[in-house]
Design brief:
The structure holds two protein chains of two kinds. By secondary structure, chain A is mainly α. Chain A folds into two domains: about 40 residues, no CATH class; about 200 residues, MetI-like fold. Chain A is built from ten helices and no strands. Chain B is built from nine helices and ten strands. In chain B, a hairpin with a 2-residue loop joins strand 1 and strand 2. In chain B, helix 5 crosses helix 6 and helix 6 runs parallel beside helix 7. The two termini of chain B are about 35 Å apart. At the A-B interface, helix 7 and helix 8 of A face helix 2, strand 6 and helix 4 of B.
């Protein structure tokens, strides 16, 4: 047998994909060239970082009661926003599922979800601060919007992937709409819904530490102030507190997931 | 002829306009006994069965059951009629993540308010009956098992029990044994026939296994090209008739 190329090619050439990769590569090179990346700047930056990190240690926990108060508020924002956001996501996600709802209902619900997803939580927080004033309520509202954008969308997608055979069987018993949802739909998506919800809770805990930067309550405000005063040791203390809370939140949500999944 | 449970008159179904799957089917189904519908794949057996409880919308014709023309109903009256029609599916269609008991009780969902269904508050009589039916279909002790942990035969037993939980005036079965091995198929057909007789429920079943139909049906309906080409007792179904229903003859040898 000779090793020459076979007369018939077993695979189709995907020209579209080849062109796509090439365009991406060209754009990456172009973007790098316009953003003024130089080796010189990178080396200078490393020196700044050394000074900065040096001034962070040892962390300054002198104002621990202020840190604790800020963290407590952040956590409250996260829990309230998660609870309300998840609760609102259930009906919105259900209405957005195209396999269960008529077109105009699902497109309306999808519009609401798209609006909730359009902006980063910080931008939404700025809008709420301007609209209803400084404080934790603005933060809660902003994270409720973020929760709906994430959970309702994934919940709708999960419902669109369910087995309609199981739904059909429940419907055939003469069950009403809500009973079909409770017995035919929810059992199929509940475990995934719990997964999305705990993930969003994690995410809300992290975001709740940030909305304070724009005045929407929580630990973000003292963190921002400490940065502006160059109190890097206080910054370090706050960052350590955030890491601790985020870590605990993750452990808790993993536990919750384990209780519900099986 | 005995009392009629179901009367189908001039039933036509077109999925695409001008291409009928069923053409003016008229049938009377007696209030007891098993009626088997046989016929080649794609000839509308499934469509016919699903038109009866309106899982498929008929294009024209009437379906009389329990004093209603099912084709004219919608909303609550349609659900009231569906409560009285049990259905057994080819792929069992159990709710996989619910327990056997929850699947059985879902047969009562037409009678239970949503809040009570959500909280799993069913009338004690329904729960008692569910346990009795589990014994009857040979699944005593399986109540707390999740449906996805069962074998195919066990699942279909749950499917039959769920349908009988409805206390139906008619049992529809859409290829109930097509996903099962031959031995289990016979057991399931026997169970379905015996349970239906025990509870005085007439059965309308689709199947493609002619031998199984001959063995368990009191009446066989041969469907071909969307029309009834045979309607009679199993012993009247000869090779010539089978050739007409399925076409060709080499498969008979």
């Amino acid at each position: 047998m000779s090793a020459s190329a076979p007369a018939r090619s077993p695979f189709a050439t995907n020209w579209g994909a080849r062109v796509g990769w090439l365009v991406l590569l060209v754009y990456v090179v172009y973007a790098t060239s316009t953003l003024d990346f130089t080796w010189r700047r990178f080396v200078d930056g490393m020196e700044h970082a050394q000074v900065f990190l040096g001034r962070m240690f040892p962390p300054n926990f002198e104002n621990w009661d202020a840190i604790l108060k800020g963290m407590k508020e952040s956590l409250e924002i996260a829990v309230l926003a998660s609870f309300t956001g998840i609760l609102l996501s259930l009906p919105i996600g259900l209405l957005a599922a195209r396999n269960l709802m008529p077109g105009w209902v699902s497109w309306t619900a999808r519009g609401v979800i798209a609006l909730a997803r359009a902006f980063h939580p910080v931008i939404v927080a700025i809008i709420f601060v301007k609209a209803i004033g400084f404080g934790a309520i603005a933060g809660v509202m902003a994270l409720i919007v973020a929760s709906i954008g994430f959970i309702a969308k994934l919940f709708a997608e999960a419902i669109e992937e369910i087995s309609l055979k199981q739904v059909e069987a429940v419907r055939a018993t003469g069950a009403g709409f809500m009973n079909v949802i409770f017995f035919g739909v929810l059992p199929q998506v509940l475990a995934r819904f719990i997964g999305f919800s705990t993930y969003q809770f994690d995410s809300n805990v992290r975001n709740s530490t940030m909305v304070g930067i724009v005045g929407a309550g929580g630990i973000g405000a003292p963190l921002f102030v400490a940065f502006q005063r160059f109190d890097y040791d206080v910054v370090a203390a706050i960052l350590i507190a955030i890491i601790a809370v985020v870590f605990i939140a993750e452990v808790v949500s993993t536990r919750i997931q384990r209780i519900f999944s099986a | 002829m005995a009392e009629t449970a179901l009367r189908i008159v001039d039933l036509t179904k077109e999925y695409r306009r001008g291409v009928p799957v069923l053409t003016r089917i008229s049938l009377d189904i007696a209030a007891r006994g098993t009626t088997a519908i046989i016929g080649p794949s794609g000839t509308g057996k499934s469509t016919l069965i699903r038109c009866v409880n309106r899982l498929v919308e008929p294009t024209s014709g009437q379906i009389h059951f329990d004093g209603h023309d099912v084709t004219r109903l919608s909303g609550a009256p349609l659900r009231t009629v569906r409560r009285r029609i049990g259905m057994v599916f080819q792929e069992y269609n159990l709710v996989e993540r619910l327990t056997v008991m929850e699947n059985l009780l879902s047969g009562r969902l037409g009678y239970v308010a949503p809040l009570n269904a959500w909280l799993r508050r069913f009338p004690p009589g329904d729960i008692e009956r569910a346990f009795e039916l589990l014994d009857e279909v040979g699944l005593s002790g399986f109540a707390q098992q999740r449906a996805d942990s069962l074998s195919g035969g066990q699942r279909q037993r749950v499917g039959i029990a769920r349908a009988i939980m409805q206390n139906p005036g008619l049992l529809l079965a859409d290829e109930p044994t097509s996903s099962l091995d031959p031995k289990t198929s016979v057991e399931i057909m026997a169970l379905m026939r015996d349970a239906a007789n025990h509870h005085s429920i007439p059965v309308l079943v689709n199947m493609h296994d002619v031998e199984l139909a001959r063995r368990f049906a009191d009446r066989i309906i041969g469907l071909s090209g969307g029309t009834v080409v045979f309607d009679g007792k199993p012993e009247e179904l000869g090779d010539a008739m089978l050739m007409q229903i399925y076409g060709g003859q080499s498969w008979l040898q």
